[in-house]
Design a protein that fits this description.
Arc Repressor Mutant, subunit A, alpha+beta, four-stranded antiparallel sheet
Length: 343
């Protein structure tokens, strides 16, 4: 297992397909490279993960993402490695019971698996790819979306996340080690789907417990910053919201800075700390992802889609689209449609 992980890491760092400034953060450091946990704890985590995998396997008989009776909980199952999927991640907690996944944020790479969870604390444009899955051992995971109001209530009630570590990055995505204290409520939440009559009463309580455990983790301050009034994270969340609503318009960074009561230099600094990219790069990714969606879902041609998302120059749109997705618009859309048809 470790040899395969090491080879994959080396291949990722040297791949010609990787962004030129790729910084392989790989915060999902393999367990054998971290401090050993007590054998009893390792065994308990293994047993709980196996039970979680069996439960998700039973509840998801076909590949894909599956919404559940718990409004903010989705389960996922894939029986083969997937092509990268570009999407906007909303604040959420992601756990894998089986398999592994690679997530790219700008030029940074995060890999998580059954021993590591992933948290997105901001709305971020990312590329996600299932990299370990087979019919015999499918990728099995879950995503629990956050409610900022719940985070704010916990932070206020228990004084969680009052301070961040000195010089700590404010990145809006991070991974952490999956422990028994986190796995226990996660498993109970998923098993609650077997008794839907109990969901209204118990799901909010268990979700609150999961958030509490996350906020007590070493990186829990990142979640608390989402709800802290006048924090840098909250102001950048406002900037992300503005850009997401108005990404088709020409970007005036002064207007964004004024709207969130930050200087232009401070906006650039903290925006990049959270998202790993500049506001302009962020806007570009939103435009390109939306243009792709328009061409696939609404059958628009490249010229119309590019104009719809704010591009005045067709050649610039084609150039930036090819650089971001790896293929010109028409060829990329054709490939995606053939994949949907199973050809």
């Amino acid at each position: 297992m470790f040899a395969r992980w090491s080879a994959e890491r080396a291949a990722l760092e040297t791949s010609a397909d990787a962004p030129p400034k790729l910084r392989s953060m790989l915060t999902s450091t393999h367990p054998s490279l971290r401090a050993e946990r007590p054998v009893e704890d390792q065994m308990q985590v293994t047993v709980m993960r196996a039970e979680l995998a069996a439960t998700i396997d039973r509840l998801t008989r076909v590949d894909g993402s599956h919404e559940t009776a718990i409004a903010r909980l989705a389960l996922a199952r894939f029986s083969q490695m997937q092509h990268p999927v570009h999407a906007m991640y909303e604040p959420a907690f992601c756990v894998l019971a089986q398999g592994s996944k690679r997530v790219l944020l700008g030029n940074e790479v995060y890999i998580y698996d059954g021993s590591r969870y992933l948290v997105a604390s901001q709305n971020l444009p990312v590329s996600g790819q299932v990299i370990d899955a087979s019919p015999e051992s499918p990728y099995l995971g879950l995503r629990l979306v956050f409610d900022v109001k719940d985070i704010a209530a916990l932070a206020l009630e228990f004084g969680l996340g009052d301070t961040s570590p000195p010089s700590a990055p404010e990145r809006g995505i991070f991974t952490g080690e999956l422990s028994t204290t986190l796995l226990d409520p996660v498993l109970r939440l998923v098993k609650l789907l077997d008794t839907p009559q109990d969901v209204p009463a118990l799901a909010p309580l268990i979700t609150r417990e999961i958030l509490y455990r996350l906020m007590r983790s070493p990186d829990g301050w990142r979640l608390a910053q989402m709800a802290a009034v006048d924090s840098h994270s909250q102001r950048i969340a406002q900037a992300i919201g503005l850009l997401s609503q108005r990404f088709r318009e020409p970007l005036r960074i002064d207007d964004v800075a004024d709207a969130i009561h930050m200087s232009v230099s401070s906006l650039h600094q903290h925006f990049k700390a959270v998202t790993s990219m500049s506001p302009l790069q962020f806007q570009k990714q939103l435009r390109l992802q939306e243009s792709r969606r328009l061409m696939i879902a609404e059958h628009l041609d490249a010229a119309t889609a590019g104009h719809r998302v704010g591009y005045e120059s067709q050649s610039q749109f084609n150039r930036e689209y090819s650089r971001f997705f790896g293929l010109p618009p028409a060829r990329d859309v054709k490939r995606l449609r053939e994949m949907q048809l199973g050809r």
